[in-house]
């Protein structure tokens, strides 16, 4: 997984996700990756319920950001007419970093210790959703 590889190379990787999901199967499939991400050193920030964080952007270095409508799944990349835009510019990235800080301020960081306490019933559903995600 590219995200964990980047983290293992020493990059600061932070992922902002909703604490709750509006589509159960998709939300559980997403959660199925949390353990591996946390063990690799990725910081996962949970945006508080009842809100759904639907932002799709990332900032790279101090001069590059990506923003768009694409989800990180094969359907968005291959089937849906979704787009992302690569933007170069320190002022744009600075503004994006401000948005990211607002997500941190509103939410909370998920720790590996907390994740390990997730009930088996929830992680079972996560795994089933991951296995069937290609059918969704």
List the helices and strands and how they pair.
Blueprint: H1 2-8, E1 14-18, H2 24-31, H3 34-40, E2 43-47, E3 57-60, E4 64-68, H4 74-79, E5 84-88, H5 90-106, E6 108-110, H6 112-116, H7 120-131
Parallel strand pairs: 1-2
Antiparallel strand pairs: 2-6, 3-4, 4-5
Helix pairs in contact: 2-7
Summed up, what is this model?
With 136 residues, the chain is of the alpha+beta class. It has helices spanning 2-8, 24-31, 34-40, 74-79, 90-106, 112-116, 120-131, and strands at 14-18, 43-47, 57-60, 64-68, 84-88, 108-110. The chain is built from seven helices and six strands.
What does this structure look like?
This protein has helices spanning 2-8, 24-31, 34-40, 74-79, 90-106, 112-116, 120-131; strands at residues 14-18, 43-47, 57-60, 64-68, 84-88, 108-110. The chain is of the alpha+beta class. The chain has a domain at 2-56 and 97-135. The protein has a three-stranded mixed beta sheet with strand order 1-2-6, sandwiched between helices. A three-stranded antiparallel beta sheet has the order 3-4-5, covered by helices on one side. Helix 2 (24-31) packs across helix 7 (120-131).
Sheet with most strands: strand arrangement: 1-2-6
Helix content: 40-55%
CA gyration radius, whole angstroms:
15 Å
Strand content: 15-25%
Euclidean distance between termini CA atoms: 21 Å
Q: From the structure provided, what is the oligomeric state, counting identical versus distinct chains? A: single chain
SSE series:
HEHHEEEHEHEHH
Output mean pLDDT: 88
Class inferred from helices and paired strands: alpha+beta
What is the number of beta strands? 6
Name the overall outline.
globular
């Amino acid at each position: 997984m590219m995200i964990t590889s980047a983290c293992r190379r020493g990059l600061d990787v932070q992922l902002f996700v909703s604490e709750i999901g509006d589509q159960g199967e998709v939300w559980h499939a997403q959660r199925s990756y949390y353990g591996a991400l946390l063990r690799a050193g990725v910081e996962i920030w949970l945006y508080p319920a009842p809100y759904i964080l639907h932002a799709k952007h990332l900032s790279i270095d101090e001069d590059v950001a990506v923003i768009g409508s694409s989800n990180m799944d094969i359907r968005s990349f291959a089937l849906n007419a979704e787009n992302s835009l690569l933007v170069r510019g320190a002022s744009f990235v600075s503004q994006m970093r401000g948005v990211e800080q607002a997500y941190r301020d509103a939410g909370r960081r998920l720790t590996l210790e907390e994740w390990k306490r997730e009930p088996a019933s929830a992680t079972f559903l996560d795994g089933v959703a991951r296995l069937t995600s290609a059918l969704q």
